[in-house]
Amino acid sequence: MATAGPSRPRPRPKSKAKQKHPHTKQVQKLATKGRIDALERAALDFTPPEDLAEFADLPISDATKRGLKKSFFLTMTPIQASSLPVSLKGKDVLGAARTGSGKTLAFLIPVLEILYRRKWGAMDGLGALVISPTRELAIQIFDVLRSIGQYHSFSAGLVIGGKNLKDERDRLSRMNILVATPGRLLQHMDQTVGFEADGLQVLVLDEADRILDMGFKKTLSALLSHLPKARQTLLFSATQTDSVDDLARLSLKDPIHIGVGEADAPKADDEEAAESTTKTLALPAGLQQNYLICPLDQKLSLLFFFIKTHLSSKTLVFLSSGKQVRFVFTTFCRMHPGIPLMHLHGKMKQTARLETYTKFTRASGAAVLFATDVAARGLDFPGVEWVLQVDAPEDAETYVHRVGRTARYQSKGKALMFLMPSEEEGMLAALARRGVEVTKTKAKGSKVTSVDNQLQNLAFQDPEIKYLGQRAFVSYLRSIYLHKDKATFKVAELPTDRFAESLGLPGAPKIKFLSREVAKQKKNRVKDLEEEVIEESEESGEDGETSEEDEEKAPEPTKAAKTGVRTKYDRMFERKNQNVLSEHYAKLLDGADADDEDFITLKRANHDLDDVPQPSEETADLSKRKQKMGRAKRAIMEGGLGHKLVFDDEGQAHELYEMEDSRAWIDGRGGIKGVKEAGERFAEGERGKMKEATVVDREEAREKKKEKKRRRKEREREEAGVDGALAGAVAVAEVDDGYVSPEFDLPSGDDDDEQETWAKPPPAKRSRTGPSTLEDDEELALRLLRGR
Known about the structure:
single chain; seven-stranded parallel sheet
């Protein structure tokens, strides 16, 4: 009976893959197409109700609704409720709304919806482009886009300056949505191969007026030339104007004007009312605005006092220049106010700017950020309670953007502006023309402690702080000098000495443009005084003619009175006890006779020389140099030039290179025979000198040769001590790959012995009676390496 072998487990049958219905994929495509077509019709036919307030009531895709809900965006703001029904239909929109009103969602939702309804895919290229004026604002827009578009399949990219250009270039061709700053975007359009925007569907210009103000006018024009004309354009800003030139420049086609209070806007026939409405700037309802009068040299003391008294607040401080931001941040950190301090300006590196922006945005407690106007546009810093403007803004629009960093999204905030006495009237008038009213307040002067002494100590101890203070001083005066409103910002009237002292500087640095401005104003004042004098004389009935007695009494007008600028010579001759010098100076100016013997007057005696031609009356007015050149030319033409003579021991004059009589010279040396003997003796002496020099030269050459040989021996001994390297060389020598090392190929051109060694023929091969061993190969390799 045969026994059965060991039992093996039977293999499980393979599970059959689920068989899809052949028409399932097609059915899904048709269903998606049907949903997109229905969404397209709903958006085109959508008529917003009066009580439209929820995003869920809009004709948008489910992916966008889910993204908005996940990001906690449920209720629309007025600008969103007004613009979204229009922009979803594919029309151009020109939106104007106050800061913090939600303009970012007003253009990002249409971007997602337009691309979704047109079935935009990865292979279709760039479909939407968002241009932002600053890097921080571009980063903020990109973060919001990722948040609300997380359920869409589009690829999005961020292109800003300060990042690796090559990394951006590699990913650029795969992007469907791009958020960029103007400069870097134009650089990619001009330099990146394969980056095209021929199929662009939507263009968004965020803070377009700021883009133009920052000097990107030509850049923006060049960008628009790269984009197709058949596109939808959305433009949003807090201070948007309705001029036809701006619209033509930004190439909008029949735009729909959307803005806060648009329903109450006046009709087109009422031009004055329309102009006033356009000029009026909208501000958040929860914003409390104040200003106080503060002299220039007390600003830093008042700022430090404010920070010390608001240690539990999140504060944003605006200064006019980046160098001021650096100086204030550095010095205040040394004085330890007891609150975290940060700074942000345009000259920082991109990594530092991004780190500061993120840190201040996420700060939930108290913090102070010193910044320039780079942080004044569009940035959303949550929880900012105070906005301080230590330096006055350039215009009303800049003021609105600065204070718009607080009181955002129906929250409350406070704004405080420091104004100098000379700026109060002009700045308040400029704000009033745009519908902005600011309340005056006062600081408790008795409690404000001056920080001038602390800043002086810091500048004395650290030269870096002194250097920063000098640069801050110059940059502030330059910013005031460049302001357009010269009636409000008067750089020549600033107390520069006291301002420099308040920065801790030992003295005010010299500034060229400020000196020119002061001189210009002095000149204008002199002209005004002269005009007043002329007007008074005309009013008194005088005909402008003066008597001889009055002319004698009237002083001669100086250069200072004519030009308005006093020189050091004017100051010298205007002194009281300068009678002698002033009379002499007056004679020189009046062309007095030079023969009069007067104080410190040197009279030249004209000596009568027979050989020197005297100047005629015609040449009396010529300069001495020209007269001397004329005499030399006349002497050359007459054939007579000066001769240089030498005198012998007897006092006889001879020419410098006078030839001696040959016969007398021969007779003085013993005749012809004596001359020949002297020549032979001279030649023999020279030959002896040459022999001695030859012996010395050969000895030196021999010593040099010995020294070279000694150094070569030392190098060979050092090379012989490297056993590991020689063993590797032997292993390589066993395989003949045809390569010759340059060390063996090119001898040195400086060593004569080495050249002679390489000139010798190679040694003959020795006969071998038996097979070569490893020792023989090593010895052969050593000889090859040593050049033997």
